[in-house]
Amino acid sequence: MAFLLFIVGVSAFDANIITYRSVYNPGETFQAEVLLDEAPSGSLTHINFDLYREKSIAALIFVEKLNDRHYFIYFNIPDAEGGTYYFRLKNVKYLEGEILKSFNKNKEFKISNLNPGFDYLIENQNQDGSLGNIKETSLATLALKNVYGENAENALSYLVANADPLGCYPKGNCNVIDTSFALITLKNFNQNYIKTKNWLNDAGNNFDIGSWQLEANGNGVCNYNNQNYTISGQSIIDIADANINLNCSSRFSFILNHNYLGSSHNIIQNSGNNLTYTIDDSGCYGLNYRSSCDYISTLYASWALKDTGENFPQDYLTNNRLDNRTIDHALGYLIYNDEYSRDWLLNNQINDYWSYYSASISQSPDYYVSALAAYALKNEIIFEDAKNYLNDKTGNNVLTSSMILHLLFDDQVKFDSISISPGIVNNKNSFDLILTNNGNPLTALIEAPNFTGLPSSVSLIGSSVFKINVPSSEGSFEINLEYANKSYTIPVILESISEGLVLLPPPRDALKFILDKDTVNLTLNKKDILIDELKFTNEWDVDISNASIILTGNLGEIVKLDQDHFDVVNSGGMISIEIMINSDKNPKLNSYQGFVVLKSEKTVDSFAMILNFKEDYESTGEKVFEDSEEIAEEESTTSPSKRTEDKKSGNLWWLWMVIIVIIGIVIFLFLRRRKVVEEDIGDFIKKN
To answer: For 226, left (φ over 0), alpha (ψ -120 to 50), or beta?
Structure first.
């Protein structure tokens, strides 16, 4: 009696998991087909499939069996964190001889979701629109701009309403840091920020901005700048130098005023027979208007001023930074591209984060300064790791969360998401099609046979239900839905399908040219012939049939392809064809342009080509298409794929005999004859 064994192992049994999208938003419907090499020992059900990332994730999975080896699966993407996930085919039992084995396979895809910190911010927004103090509200407004626009506008309204009449922040208690962040926000929202910018410009310790006057109250004679002032009561003395030295014959009271754009500020008040005072001209900023220097305030003010195109005190920043403090180098590199600060940041990163101080002093992570440091190094190889580290650090407090989101996740937008039900219709002549909008209101386009009664477009807010009745005379068909550069294909199967027939369409970009540029722009000599290889590949899991290359514009008059139709492009396969430009050496026009288009029924890829022809143009360069080969310039060199013989030079073979006798004539003729070379396209690209 034979015994049935259960073994997990590797065998020839395989499955092809076919999808046509690689990125999904939460709520969208994942569709997949599974084609098995052979029938399993039992029918597959929902327990043979799951959504996985480190562990199984709950999802309501629907499975339609089309035949013993063909299954169609669909489910709605849950509201999961963004990142890489796997659709798993698991525990598929099959017999190999008398041994029962189990088969598993994964299909990778991505879920694109908003960072949860955006929801954290709106949960902490007050009814008046604020999210804390001015600095916090300003940063949160910037963070929410692309995701929750209405919340951002409410926060912006709070900022505008709480400006001081002088333009500074907050109203009645202006300080440099709050005003700096408010200025950045107002500018980024295209608000009127002129008064705010002017106040911040004037708030720095700079003698040359505005005018200075000394109010002297008393009776007597005062000497300033070798000039005597006889004062009875009150006198105003214009100050022309940062160093003030005033000597009086009796006791006076003094008030030093600074005036700028209609605003007047008392800087100091003093009394006595003498006044000696030096106006700070270092360019630094204090905590408040023209107060004693504070480096952090100067950093933020400089950041805001640079953002608005104003001058900032770079010398002060460079000469007074603390070498062991991260924020000095993060903002220093952001503001004035200090290479030392760049090297400092790279050298003091600790496991993808930064501490408030250098790594030798502290290893405790500071998420706020880490966001600034990561953003400063956004063009460095370490940026993505630092960004990923901070991805889940956006729910601790409003200030830190806002800084991380504004600087590192400003590319995120509130997603568009439509789910469909069902994802496939199998042997039903009557069914309800449910379209549900899970995101922003949008319009979806529908393509379906007329008998379905479906509209060609529908504006979706919430769910819409369409009752479909299929006449008994109709065969299988499909319903196509498009929205926001995305699409669904819903197969409606009314009869048995052929073995191996794939129902889902390929991704629109499944066929791709192997080319590292969107435009090929060449300048050629009118007698040049360019020959090269043009390659493309099929990146889908299934063969694609009936592909063509089409030349648009007037490219067909000057470009020749040795093949432009392809019955099948194998999955993962690459096809190479020869492309020849100016084969007749007789361009009728000086310029040719258009697109080279690679298309099949459901896919398209293209690149632009611009060809300019000039007389006596000497062309050299690098390769244009993948693996192109240079063609030798010597006229005596020939090969089947690189034709370098010129008809004119071919008629001058006898000159080689003359060279032996009259070398001078040969040199004369050689220097003046027209040298025409047929080169590959790559020889021209450096010139373009």
So the answer is: left
Task: Kindly report the backbone phi and psi dihedral angles of residue 179, in degrees, each rounded to the nearest multiple of 5, phi listed first.
Answer: -65, -35
On whether residue 37 sits in a domain, the answer given is yes
SS3 content of the chain, % helix, strand, coil (to 5): 25, 35, 40
Q: Is residue 264 part of a domain?
A: yes
Q: Is the pLDDT of residue 614 over 50?
A: yes
CA 358, CA 328: separation in Å to the nearest integer? 11
Beta bridge partners of 490: 479
Q: Could you identify the residue written with the tokens 């007389």?
A: 615
Distance of CA 534 to the CA centre of its chain: 29
Question: How far apart, in Å, are the Cα atoms of 495 and each of 66, 467, 473, 474?
Answer: 10, 21, 12, 10
Work out the burial of residue 679: count CB atoms within 10 Å of its CB; fewer than 13 is exposed, 13-18 middle, 19 or more buried. buried
Our CA dihedral for 443, 445, 449, 452, rounded to 10 degrees, sits at -20
Tell me the backbone φ, ψ of residue 663, rounded to 5 degrees. Answer: -65, -30
User: What are the tens digits of pLDDT across the range 148-163?
Assistant: 999 999 999 999 999 9
321 neighbors 291 (Cβ within 8 angstroms) = no
What would the mean pLDDT of 105-113 be, rounded to a whole number? 95
Higher-scoring residue by pLDDT: 7, 566: 566
542 and 438 within one domain: no
Query: For the chain, what percent of residues have pLDDT higher than 70?
Result: 88
Predicted local distance difference test score (pLDDT) of residue 681: 44
Of 263, 149, 143, which is closest to residue 202 (Cα–Cα)? 263
Which CATH number does the domain housing residue 481 bear? 2.60.40.10
Q: Report whether the peptide linkage leading into residue 170 is cis, meaning its omega lies within 30 degrees of zero.
A: yes
DSSP annotation string for 135-174:
HHHHHHHHHHTTT-HHHHHHHHHHHHHT--TTS-SSTTS-
| Predicted TM-score of the model (pTM) | 0.72
Instruction: Kindly state the average pLDDT of the residues 125-130.
Output: 97
Residues 616 and 483 in one domain: no
* Whole-number Cα distances in Å, 682 to 352, 533, 678, 679, 685: 42, 10, 12, 8, 5
Does 487 share its domain with 520?
Answer: no
Task: Give the 3-state DSSP-derived string for 217-278, with helices as H, strands as E and coil as C.
Answer: EEEEEEEECCEEEEEEEEEEEEECCCEEEEEEEEEEEEEEEEEECCEEEEEEEEEEEEEEEE
Tell me which residue range forms the domain holding 457. Answer: 418-493
Interval 287-301: pLDDT, tens:
999 999 999 999 999
Same domain (yes/no): 577, 532? yes
> Are 517 and 619 in a shared domain?
yes
Which residue type is seen at 160? V
Give how many domains the chain has, as a whole number. Answer: 4
Q: At what angle do helices 176-188 and 295-307 cross, to 10 degrees?
A: 20
Concatenate the DSSP letters of all residues of 22-71 into one string.
SEE-TTPEEEEEEEESS--SS---GGGEEEEESEEE----EEEEEETTEE
CA 90 – CA 67 distance, rounded (Å): 18
Measured CA to CA, the distance from residue 382 to residue 346 in angstroms comes to 8
Q: 521 and 471 share a domain? A: no
State both tokens at 585.
């050496």
Q: What percent of the chain has a predicted confidence (pLDDT) above 90?
A: 81
